[in-house]
Write a structure and sequence with these properties.
Blueprint lengths: L1 H19 L5 E4 L8 E5 L2 E5 L5 E5 L4 E3 L2 E3 L3 H45 L5 H36 L13 H12 L2
Helix pairs in contact: 1-2, 1-4, 2-3, 3-4
Length: 187
């Protein structure tokens, strides 16, 4: 259930940001029902908040700051941190696309019903809405892939950089749980 909450919150935040025209500069993802903490993309940095409230910041270039202090990292760790940043950015981009696709389902439903009522034929409404729903499923599937990729990078960081462990906010099964929820929610 945590993965479903994560996907829905990311999609809603991304979709609302895209609909509002404010871009992706300040999007927060809070995994619901967990003590893992949360992650955000704020002011061009990934912000990871541990369960104790402390924060780690990851810059696009892989620079890491924990509790306000820069952390020395190897070139390999910096590359992994940059991949983590890119993974969060991709997750948020796909969330925006998922939110917009979901909004399009609503628009299609309303316009299809209105058109059907005007023509006296509602027979095509279901197929038109289902076509749009497939787009939502495709975008949500991308979110699940993003979660799996983010978890893999996170695991590498936890293994090589002990200070990163408290900021490992993506759960072990989030990617697969997400994929199962997408399959179950969107036949």
């Amino acid at each position: 259930m945590r993965a479903r909450s994560l996907v829905y919150l990311v999609a809603a935040a991304g979709g609302l940001a895209a609909l509002a025209g404010c871009g992706r500069s300040d999007v927060t993802v809070v995994p619901s029902g967990t003590a893992h903490g949360n992650l955000a993309l704020r002011d061009g940095q990934v912000v990871l908040t541990a369960s104790d409230g402390s924060q780690a910041l990851i810059a696009k270039d892989g620079a890491l700051t924990i509790r306000g202090a820069p952390v020395a990292v190897t070139d390999a760790q910096r590359a992994d941190l940059a991949r983590y940043y890119a993974g969060v950015d991709a997750l948020i981009a796909h969330a925006g696309a998922t939110g917009l696709a979901g909004a399009q389902v609503g628009v299609t439903a309303v316009s299809s019903v209105a058109e059907g009522l005007a023509k006296g034929d509602l027979s095509r409404v279901g197929s038109q809405v289902e076509a749009q729903a497939r787009a939502v499923k495709q975008e949500a599937g991308a979110l699940c892939g993003d979660l799996r990729a983010l978890r893999a990078v996170q695991d590498a960081l936890v293994a090589s950089l002990q200070a990163f462990q408290p900021y490992a906010v993506v759960g072990a099964h989030d990617g697969e749980d997400c994929a199962q929820e997408v399959r179950a929610d969107h036949p």
